[in-house]
Design goal:
This protein is of the alpha+beta class and 250 residues long. It is 25% helix and 26% strand. The protein has one domain: Endonuclease/exonuclease/phosphatase (Deoxyribonuclease I, Chain A, 4-Layer Sandwich), CATH 3.60.10.10. It contains 7 helices and 11 strands. The protein has a 6-stranded mixed sheet with strand order 3-4-2-1-11-10. The chain has a 5-stranded mixed sheet with strand order 5-6-7-9-8.
């Protein structure tokens, strides 16, 4: 089973890249962030991707998430849902067999840091509830937090930078602990200090791989034990984020 996530930074600007990537990877679940478009703005070939149940949750020019399931693994139209704390079209969930998949776009925090903290706290409560109920959960997306110093290139490490603050990192650790979740990418590649998913769009930072790791696949422990790969594809697309694809042997 493949679960993929990608902050596309504008779905219409990345339309052909997205379609080529999907044709290449054929994920069972596709989580997209920062689509910056309402469903009415999407061309038909994106609004209803061939072979997928599609759900778009966005508004013009800002934020937004998408979540799409391959029809071969979900024969019936699935029910997409939003937790009560959803705002600015930042989270959608769906059931994929016994697993709930969430596509999440955490606020950057630059304009309203408290909104970011509140959103992360709500994700912590959501993850804890799933664990308490014994339900499998996969949280995918742009969490806008670099988990540790290792997740930021040395040239980009700034102790007072939003995304690297101690309180943000502590909250991400609480999400993992409270939800019994595993950071799949890091679990499978624990010593890679060049594993990044976002690069500032200047000075050829992407080409030089001077970046941050902000995009994650967090999975319940029982599912994470069956993960076989979770790379970041720096060479794909022109978004400032790379897609991340987790493969589970189920």
């Amino acid at each position: 089973m493949k679960i993929a996530t990608w902050n596309v930074n504008g779905i219409r600007a990345r339309q052909s890249q997205l379609q080529e990537w999907i044709a290449q990877e054929r994920p069972d679940a596709i989580c997209l962030q920062e689509i910056k478009a309402s469903p009415s703005q999407l061309p038909p070939e994106l609004c209803d991707l061939e072979g997928y149940w599609c759900y778009w949750h966005g508004e013009r020019a800002y934020s937004g998430v998408g979540l799409h399931l391959k029809k071969s693994v979900a024969p019936q139209l699935p029910q997409f849902a939003h937790p009560p704390f959803d705002f600015e079209n930042r989270i959608v969930t769906v059931q994929l067999g016994p697993v709930t998949v969430a596509s999440v776009y955490v606020p950057n925090g630059g304009k309203d840091f408290q909104a970011k903290i509140t959103f992360l706290e709500e994700i912590e409560r959501l993850a804890a509830a799933y664990r308490q109920e014994g339900r499998l959960l996969v949280i995918c997306g742009d969490l806008n937090v670099a988990r540790t110093e290792m997740d930021v290139h040395p040239k980009e490490r700034k102790p007072n930078a939003i995304g690297q603050l101690p309180e943000e990192r502590a909250l991400l650790e609480r999400i993992l602990a409270s939800g019994g979740l595993v950071d799949v990418g890091r679990a499978l590649d624990p010593d890679n200090d060049m594993l990044f998913t976002w690069w500032a769009p200047w000075r050829n930072l992407r080409q030089r791989n001077i970046g941050w790791r902000l995009d994650y696949v967090l999975a319940s422990e029982d599912l994470a034990r069956r993960a076989s790969s979770c790379p970041s594809f720096r060479e794909i697309g022109t978004s400032d984020h790379a897609p991340v694809v987790a493969t589970f042997d189920v």
